[in-house]
Task: inverse folding
């Protein structure tokens, strides 16, 4: 069913010039939001105006329905400007991608999402981690409970690391029902529902403006049709985040942008730094030129793995989830290496709070937290190799 939105989502401009302008506009306020930890509204509005937050809305709803590689380009551009904005965008785009693939939202509710999205940045995210359990991809079932009543579900529980915070328009809350047999899935909860309490817990090293706070749900009433079930397989619950799929590459794509931003910061410093003993910019020395080459090599490796893998998937090639998880691991290693190489070469200057490389280092380290994490990916691959 086609959702009525009043006007179709904007088709984003994916030209190199447009993405460069997007990066520059988002970057203009990145340091400010990093310091304050406030919701990065200026960057979100920049992404909204260009249609980049609705780039994955399905064609049947009048949307662009861009493929994964195009989404990766958007998220790298946003990540180069402000990775907090990029993370909020990645989660929203992934939610639209899931709806494009499965069409599981109630039609009227998704139509409301699209109506809001036409007017202002409308953020969506799955809210999954819990204080006791940790990340669901590691295994286990949610302590958050959805009690079934005659009129709907009543949701209770506390979640950790709910990216987006009060900027979210809708939460997709991972929960278990009290039915017999119990079911597991996501409940779509409007952000203005009664019984939602945010806890100001996010005081993180990186992605400080992502507002990844804790949230409590107390007697939150949600209609039955808002429950999106994740079926058990042969009586066993297998969390979708435990293995990589094409959509999950949006997260690593944004950190490719962080590595590019670090390359730019390194280049600008090297071109303008003129030690008195040298009498010329350090960019003219073979040592710094070699470092620049190493930084670029790591970024080329990350970009090639990212876009090459997505091109293979778009061509119809079947790449197993375990191998996709390994590719994500290798991209993460490359982007971290690129930024660490820049920081190591510049020393104290790169670790000073007023220099952007310090922020880029903090931000790029956050690539490691996205599931499946490196140890899980390597263990699954090793088990497959050893049979």
Result:
């Amino acid at each position: 069913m086609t959702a009525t939105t009043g006007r179709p989502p904007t088709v984003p401009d994916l030209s190199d010039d447009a993405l460069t302008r997007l990066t520059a506009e988002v970057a203009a306020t990145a340091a400010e939001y990093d310091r304050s930890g406030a919701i990065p509204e200026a960057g979100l509005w920049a992404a909204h105006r260009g249609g980049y937050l609705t780039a994955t809305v399905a064609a049947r709803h009048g949307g662009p329905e861009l493929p994964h590689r195009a989404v990766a380009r958007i998220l790298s551009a946003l990540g180069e400007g402000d990775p907090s904005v990029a993370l909020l965008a990645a989660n929203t785009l992934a939610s639209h991608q899931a709806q494009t693939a499965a069409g599981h939202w109630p039609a009227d509710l998704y139509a409301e999402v699209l109506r809001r999205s036409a007017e202002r940045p409308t953020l969506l995210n799955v809210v999954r981690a819990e204080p006791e359990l940790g990340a669901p991809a590691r295994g286990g079932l949610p302590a958050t409970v959805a009690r079934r009543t005659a009129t709907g579900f009543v949701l209770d529980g506390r979640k950790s690391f709910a990216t987006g915070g009060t900027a979210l328009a809708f939460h997709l809350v991972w929960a278990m029902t009290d039915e017999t047999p119990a079911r597991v899935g996501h409940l779509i909860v409007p952000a203005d529902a009664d019984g939602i309490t945010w806890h100001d817990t996010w005081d993180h090293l990186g992605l400080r403006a992502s507002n990844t706070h804790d949230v409590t749900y107390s007697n939150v009433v949600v209609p039955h049709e808002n429950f999106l079930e994740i079926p058990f397989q042969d009586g066993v619950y297998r969390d979708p985040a435990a293995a990589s799929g094409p959509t999950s590459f949006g997260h690593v794509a944004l950190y490719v942008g962080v590595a590019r931003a670090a390359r730019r910061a390194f280049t600008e410093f090297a071109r303008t730094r003129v030690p008195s003993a040298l009498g010329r910019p350090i960019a003219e020395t073979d040592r710094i030129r070699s470092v620049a080459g190493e930084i670029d090599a790591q970024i080329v490796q990350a970009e090639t793995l990212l876009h090459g893998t997505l091109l293979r998937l778009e061509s119809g090639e079947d790449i197993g989830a375990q191998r996709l998880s390994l590719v994500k691991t290798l991209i993460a290693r490359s982007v971290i290496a690129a930024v660490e190489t820049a920081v190591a070469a510049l020393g104290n200057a790169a670790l000073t709070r007023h220099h952007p490389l310090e922020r880029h280092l903090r931000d790029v380290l956050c690539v490691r937290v996205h599931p499946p994490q490196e140890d899980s990916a390597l263990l699954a691959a090793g088990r497959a190799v050893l049979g």
In short: The CA atoms of residues 62 and 169 lie 21 Å apart. The chain has three domains: 16-121, 127-229, 244-386. Residues 127-229 form a domain with the Butyryl-CoA Dehydrogenase, subunit A; domain 2 fold (CATH 2.40.110.10).
